[in-house]
């Protein structure tokens, strides 16, 4: 058996790893080239959700994103196209980038609902969305969004994590990683999912990717109880639970101390500790019963069509009001993917979200929270200006529109975005963004800027490489969107 006394100094220095290695280390030290474990990542890092300073001034402190998965038709909702009305029923006069060629046609279908100016700003929006039209003076309507990857998954990834592939952190994870949270008794990043199911790509929509697990979005259920098992069993209530949790916490900490650098273990322990604190805080935050009747009516909780989405919008307001950093509200799988029957399915989708979405902006404003909260509404794409899936029918009852990621609309409000402003445009047919184009990476750079985060400084070292949300060197902060 080897012992310290059984190896002489001479035999140690004579082996292959002895004197040569010592000599090299000595030379490296003398020349200042010996690695510093603290700089080289040799020391374990600790990740948590305590508040972090921004890189610079940022007006935005929180964000609520209403993600309309499937692709709302910008042609029918947000961007009037008189030229399309003239061409309605005729052959499209240019090239079309189809996604589903099997059901494609060249027959132009103009906007199917009337547009009119809204508010003092005069931004034109269609009759499909009267409530959103009523907040035109609060929003920036971006009519020139572009991802250029013409299917749901890739475009969702582009808008949520910056690239067209999965496995990367979403915007909410990056912002909570950069800034932490102002409330240690609630999750920093919350996902409010639709009762009809998760959107395309499932949990990738609120994934932490390769960031530490503590920055993953926490799902709040679409029905009661919105978080399971918040109440302890009767046998553990009160002092018994307190002693039990203290004991478990001590065991967890001893376990973690013996495994430095295990970020997943740290995140799991932090989630256990957060769960205990949430027993009181989360129940209070998610309880809307004490909201005034006027507030409930504002969000449409008195109507079957708007009640469910309205409740989630109201909960989102309550969460950011209590210091939650990022809230995502998702519609269900393909809710806005109107390849067929768009004349009936699009109005239904609009009716569900129009009033609650506008109410969220108005409610935040009247509470003094809109200036510090970014509100986002939009999907991963728009629709094409031609008919899809006529299927032999003489009328348009069966038709829809195919995907279009080359030019589409979304809107933002608050948090430092310009109010009452329509930005950019697609071509005369609504197909390609051509004026003041905003790519997904431009949007991300602008968003981080409003939070006081420098896209080049918000980094995470992975496999020896500094990872960032905004990788495209052409990305810019779109200053025209800023107040």
Automatic annotation (TrEMBL):
Q: Which InterPro entries match?
A: Alkaline_phosphatase_core_sf, DUF1501, TAT_signal
- A Pfam family matched by this chain, by name? DUF1501
Q: What is this protein called?
A: DUF1501 domain-containing protein
Please give the organism: Prosthecobacter dejongeii
